[in-house]
Design brief:
- The protein has 709 residues and is an alpha+beta fold.
- It is 49% helix and 11% strand.
- It is built from 27 helices and 21 strands.
- A five-stranded mixed sheet has the order 3-5-4-6-7, sandwiched between helices. Strands 19-18-20-21 form a four-stranded mixed sheet, sandwiched between helices.
- Helix 9 packs antiparallel against helix 10, helix 11 runs antiparallel to helix 12 and helix 19 crosses helix 21 (559-574).
- The longest helix has 19 residues, at 397-415.
- The chain is globular, with a radius of gyration of 27 Å.
C-alpha cells in the first residue's frame, strides 16, 4: 500500500502533508505536516498492519497538552525519527477528546504496564490492537531515566521480528486484564446514609487545613467533591462540610489558578498554594466550577461567589462560544512557544501601564514584585483581603477597589494585544452538556435571563447539529460545519442532564421530552443486561479489544453516575419506575466502590444523596412567564434544595399535567399562580404569595428525614 504523504515547498523548506490534513480535530491537524506517515484511527490503518504484519505505534494526546507539543517538536517533526517510525510501524494518531473509548482502554493498559499514566500516551500494539509495550512521553535523548525515543523504536521493532512469542504473551496478558477491568460485581449491601457519612469523613481526613483542597500538589479543582460537601451540609447540618467547601472556593478564587483579569480557571495548580497553574483552560473545568460557585452563592449569599460565577461565564461567552451557540473545547497553555507567557507580568510592565502610584497599590493587592513569583514574572493572585491591603496602604477600601478595577481593565486591554494561546474550537457533545446545565442553573439562581438565552441557543444547536437526522442518535464532535463519530454514554448522559436543567430554567416540555428520548436511547444501546450499569460505547459501536465501562470520576463526572442521576430525576418527576430502577441498579453495583474509594465517586455520591432524600416536590400552577409565577419561582431559587423536584404549568396545560404526576389535580387559588410544597407525600397548604412560600421552604429546608432502605 502506498503512502498518502505529499510534499509541498514553502520557500526552500519542504512541507509534508499526511492523512491528518483532512481531519477536523485541531489536535490531529497540528500533526498534519509531520514527516510521519500518520493515519487517523480507522480500518485503513488496522488493515494495513494486519496485511503487512507490522506493529502499530499509537500516539494519543490532545491539542492543549504541553508535553504533547514537546514530544511532537522533538520527535514527530524530526525527519530521522519519522523515517524510523515509517519504516518499522503503522503510525496512528488519536485525539483523546474525540475518542474517549480508545483513551480509556489504552490508558488502563499504560497504567497496568507502567504504574502511571498521562499524555502524550505512547503505545506499541500488535496488529490486532492489543498493546505489548506502553509509556507516555519519551525524550529524543536518554534522560529522566528513560531511553531515547529512537532507541526505543529500534529495540521494539527488533523484538517484534525476533521474539514474536514474547510479544504475543505480553499482549495476551494485557487483553485479559482489560477484559477483567469491566467485571464489577453488584453489592448486596443496603444503600444507606452511612455511605455518605464515610465519604464526608474521608474528605475531612484529606483536607488541607492551611491551603484548602484535598491532598498535596498538583492540586486539581475538586468541583464534584465540593458539590458533595454542599449537599452533605444541607443533609446533616455539619458546619465543617460547608467550611471546607467555602475555604477551597475562596483559596482557588484568590489564587493564580484563577485568571484574575479575564476570568476562568486554569487546569490545575502545580503547588499546594493554588499559585502556579498549568495554564491551559478546559471547558469542563469551567462548567463545573461556575456551577459550584453559583450553588455556594445560593447557600450563603456571599457576593464573591456570584462574582466568580459571572466572571467565568463572561469568559466563556467572550472566548469559548461559537457563533452557532456551541461551546469550544479548550485553550492552550502555551503561546509563542512558552507556557503561561500570555498570562504573566513583570513589575515594569504593570508600572508602564498603570503609572507608579496605581502600580504600587495594584502590586500590593496582586503580589506583583520585581523578583516575581514565576520565572522572574508575576502570576496575579490575592494574598490578603482588600480591606487589609487598604489599611496597610493607609487608604480607604473604596479607593483601593477603584484602583484595582481600573488596573484590571487596563492590563486586560493590554493583554488582548498579545499573541493568544491556541484555541481548540471543536464542539464536544458531553462537554457542551455540562456547560448547558451550568448556564441554565445560573440563569435561575442568579436571575439572569441572558444566561437562559445562551442555554436555549446551545440546546437548539446541539440537538440540530450533533444528532443524526436519520435515526435520532447523537454524534460526538462538530467542527467546520461537520458533525461526526458515534456518541458515547457520556454524551447522552451529560446532554440529558443539561436538558433537564434547561427544563428547570424554562419549564418548556420540549426539553423534558428531549431528555427522556436520550434516556431511552441510553437504556436501549448502552445498558449491560448481564451485570448492570452502562457501557461507555453503544451496542453497535466498532469492536475494540475491550468494551469500557466508565464508573469513576476523572476530570469529568463518571458517565455512569451522570446517567444514574438523569434516570433517578426522570423516574421521580415522571413517575416512571423503570427509569428509577435502572438508576438504583447503578448505585447498587458501585456501592462497594463508594465505600472503598469515595474520592473516586463524588458525582455518584451526589446521586446517592438524592436517592436517599425524602421525596420532595414543588408544583406551581401558573404560566411560567407570568409575573406572579416568576415571583414564586424567585423565592424557590433563593433556597438551596438540591433534591427537590420543581414543575410549573398553567391550569389548562393538559399535556404537562398528564406527563408530570405532581401537577395533576391541582388548581390555582384565587385565580393567581399557586405553589404546592410536598414532602414524603404530605403537602402543606397551597400558597400564592412569596412570603407564604418562603415560610414553607424555610420549614422544609432543615427537615432532612432519610429514605428507608
Amino acid at each position: 500500500m502506498t503512502s498518502q504523504r505529499t510534499v509541498q515547498h514553502v520557500g526552500s523548506e519542504p512541507l509534508f502533508s499526511n492523512r491528518l490534513s483532512s481531519e477536523t480535530s485541531p489536535y490531529l491537524r497540528q500533526h498534519a505536516h509531520n514527516p510521519v506517515d500518520w493515519y487517523p484511527w480507522g480500518e485503513e490503518a488496522l488493515t494495513r498492519a494486519r496485511d503487512e504484519n507490522k506493529p502499530i505505534l499509537l500516539s494519543i494526546g490532545y491539542s492543549t497538552c504541553h508535553w504533547c507539543h514537546v514530544m511532537a517538536h522533538e520527535s514527530f517533526e524530526d525527519p530521522d525519527t519519522a523515517a524510523l517510525m515509517n519504516r518499522h510501524f503503522i503510525n496512528i494518531k488519536v485525539d483523546r477528546e474525540e475518542r474517549p473509548d480508545l483513551d480509556a482502554i489504552y490508558m488502563d493498559a499504560v497504567q497496568a504496564m507502567t504504574g502511571s499514566g498521562g499524555w502524550p500516551m505512547t503505545l506499541f500494539l500488535a496488529p490486532d490492537g492489543v498493546p505489548f509495550y506502553a509509556g507516555t512521553y519519551f525524550p529524543p535523548a536518554p534522560r529522566y531515566g528513560m531511553p531515547s525515543f529512537r532507541q526505543l523504536l529500534l529495540n521494539l521493532a527488533a523484538a517484534y521480528q525476533r521474539r514474536p512469542q514474547d510479544i504475543q504473551r505480553n499482549a495476551e496478558q494485557i487483553r485479559q486484564m482489560l477484559r477483567q477491568a469491566t467485571l464489577v460485581q453488584p453489592s448486596s449491601a443496603a444503600l444507606t446514609p452511612q455511605v455518605l457519612d464515610h465519604a464526608y469523613q474521608d474528605l475531612a481526613a484529606r483536607f488541607d487545613t492551611r491551603d484548602a483542597g484535598f491532598g498535596q500538589a498538583p492540586k486539581f479543582p475538586p468541583s464534584m467533591a465540593l458539590e458533595f460537601l454542599l449537599r452533605y451540609h444541607a443533609r446533616s447540618g455539619q458546619p465543617n462540610a460547608l467550611a471546607m467547601a467555602e475555604q477551597t472556593l475562596e483559596h482557588m478564587a484568590r489564587g493564580g489558578i484563577y485568571d484574575q483579569l479575564g476570568g476562568g480557571f486554569h487546569r490545575y495548580a502545580t503547588d499546594d498554594h493554588w499559585l502556579v497553574p498549568h495554564f491551559e483552560k478546559m471547558l469542563y473545568d469551567n462548567a463545573q466550577l461556575a456551577r459550584v460557585y453559583a450553588l455556594a452563592f445560593q447557600i450563603t449569599g456571599k457576593p464573591l461567589y456570584r462574582q466568580i460565577t459571572e466572571e467565568i461565564l463572561a469568559y466563556v461567552l467572550r472566548e469559548m462560544t461559537s457563533p452557532e451557540g456551541g461551546f469550544y473545547t479548550a485553550q492552550d497553555a502555551d503561546s509563542e512557544g512558552e507556557e503561561g507567557k500570555f498570562f504573566v507580568w513583570t513589575q515594569a510592565e504593570v508600572r508602564d501601564l498603570l503609572g507608579q502610584k496605581d502600580a504600587e497599590l495594584f502590586g500590593r493587592y496582586y503580589d506583583v514584585t520585581a523578583r516575581g513569583n514565576f520565572e522572574m514574572t508575576n502570576i496575579l493572585h490575592v494574598e490578603k483581603p482588600l480591606a487589609v491591603v487598604a489599611s496597610q496602604a493607609g487608604i480607604t477600601p473604596e479607593h483601593l477597589a477603584a484602583v484595582i478595577e481600573r488596573g484590571r481593565a487596563q492590563l486586560f486591554a493590554a493583554r488582548q494585544q498579545r499573541v493568544a494561546p491556541g484555541l481548540d474550537d471543536k464542539v464536544l457533545t458531553s462537554w457542551n452538556g455540562l456547560m448547558l446545565a451550568t448556564f441554565a442553573d445560573a440563569a435561575r439562581i442568579l436571575g439572569r435571563d441572558d444566561y437562559r438565552q445562551v442555554a436555549l441557543a446551545a440546546a437548539t444547536f446541539l440537538l440540530s447539529r450533533l444528532r443524526d437526522p436519520q435515526n435520532g442518535r447523537l454524534l460526538r464532535t462538530y467542527r467546520d460545519g461537520q458533525a461526526k463519530l458515534s456518541a458515547y454514554l457520556e454524551d447522552y448522559a451529560l446532554l440529558a442532564e443539561g436538558l433537564l436543567a434547561l427544563y428547570q430554567a424554562t419549564f418548556d416540555l420540549r426539553w423534558l421530552h428531549e431528555a427522556q428520548t436520550l434516556a431511552d436511547l441510553m437504556l436501549q444501546h448502552f445498558w449491560d443486561a448481564d451485570l448492570g450499569a452502562f457501557f461507555s460505547t453503544s451496542d453497535d459501536h466498532e469492536t475494540l479489544i475491550a468494551r469500557p465501562k466508565e464508573v469513576v470520576d476523572n476530570a469529568m463526572p463518571s458517565a455512569n453516575a451522570s446517567a444514574a442521576g438523569v434516570l433517578l430525576h426522570l423516574g421521580r418527576l415522571l413517575g416512571h419506575e423503570t427509569y428509577e430502577r435502572h438508576g438504583v441498579a447503578v448505585l447498587q453495583l458501585l456501592h462497594e466502590g463508594m465505600m472503598q474509594a469515595p474520592g473516586a465517586f463524588s458525582r455518584l455520591l451526589c446521586v446517592l444523596d438524592s436517592y436517599l432524600a425524602p421525596p420532595a416536590e414543588i408544583a406551581i400552577i401558573g404560566a411560567a412567564s407570568a409575573p406572579d409565577t416568576q415571583a414564586l419561582l424567585t423565592e424557590v431559587w433563593r433556597t438551596y434544595l438540591p433534591n427537590t423536584l420543581v414543575a410549573v404549568a398553567p391550569a389548562d396545560d393538559r399535556a404537562a399535567r398528564a406527563l408530570i404526576p405532581m401537577l395533576a389535580g391541582r388548581d390555582q387559588v384565587g385565580g393567581q399562580a399557586t405553589a404546592y410544597v410536598c414532602e414524603n407525600h404530605t403537602c402543606q397548604l397551597p400558597v400564592n404569595t412569596a412570603s407564604a412560600l418562603r415560610q414553607q421552604l424555610t420549614r422544609q429546608a432543615p427537615a432532612r428525614k432519610e429514605r428507608q432502605p
